[in-house]
Amino acid sequence: MENFKEIINIKSEEKDKGKRLDSFISEVIGEATRSYIQKLIDNGNVEVVGKNQSKSGNKLKGNEEIIIRIPEDQNLELEPENIPIDIVYQDKDMVVINKSYNMIVHPAQGFYTGTLVNAVLYHIKDLSTINGVIRPGIVHRLDKDTSGLIIVAKNDEAHLKLTEMFKDKTIEKRYICICKGTFGEKEGRIETLIGRDSKDRKKMAVVYENGKNAITNYKVVSEFNNFSLVEVRIETGRTHQIRVHMKYLNHPIVGDGVYGNGGDLAKRQMLHSYYLKLNHPVNGNEMEIIGKVPEDFKDLCKKLKLDLSNVDKLGEDNHE
User: Fold this and answer.
1) Can you give 5-70 as a three-state secondary structure string?
2) Count H helices, E strands: the chain?
3) Active-site residues: which are they?
4) Is residue 61 a contact partner of residue 261, using CB atoms and an 8 Å limit?
5) Which backbone phi and psi does 85 adopt, to 5 degrees?
6) pLDDT tens track for 128-158
7) Is residue 299 helix, strand or coil?
8) Is there a contact between 285 and 278 (Cβ–Cβ < 8 Å)?
9) Closest Cα partner for 134 from 97, 107, 162?
10) Does pTM surpass 0.85?
11) Domains and CATH numbers, the chain
């Protein structure tokens, strides 16, 4: 019996009438290549209940029940790729990389090249084996268009300890984001449940049942006209957590086409993970790691007259 990573049960709506099955699935599972979706359908992993066979070009009638079975990651031989990466810190146990935006962390759903893992395999020869060939050394992740600091484990001892530290919330993570509007409360703590949006499977949302606890602390550090520069510290690491919580406060992140309106100001969500504080997973020494702020983020702050120098722990090199 085949094991599946996820089984999605969803119902099409009247508005989906006439839509191709492959297009509908693309909306449901988000970042997946067309060839990956085609393969899901061809391999019988997509079932339109009541139909004998599903094909990519099948047109939906609306109100069908659709079951999508996502198989476990393939056991692939991933190719190292000479993609430039910004290594902020490295020793024999761990590496910290300042990830650029527009980069997926690890291969998934048809994306098997151009990821951070492909780059890491080229630049770093020793990696932990705990997460297998798809995610070697990867302890945590950032969204594709979120930039910032990611820890990669170089051996299994470090990996296990780092995983435990993330679980126990002993790693401090700080982000900065540019949000729409000015906040009535200049700092606060948000604690909600986050789960799948019942109206859109691609999105996460604040929910009142069947979700996971999510805690976000925020502080406005600069504001001008109708925009705010916000420092965020998260206590949990839920999917899209900061983006969902900023939308929940009615201050979506600039450039976020999923939880905001996107817009012309930015090509991606203006969210950057700039700071990590932790005890080294092997020797126990306290570490503070700061990643430089990307040029597009700095440029937009300058354009909107938001002062990056107000962000705690950011050095002069980041905001000149």
Assistant:
1) EEEEEEECCHHHCCCEHHHHHHHHHCCCCHHHHHHHHHCCCEEECCCCCCCCCCECCCCCEEEEEE
2) 7, 13
3) 143
4) no
5) -135, 150
6) 876 565 567 788 888 889 999 999 999 999 9
7) helix
8) no
9) 107
10) no
11) 4-71 (3.10.290.10), 86-167 (3.30.2350.10), 172-288+300-309 (3.30.2350.10)
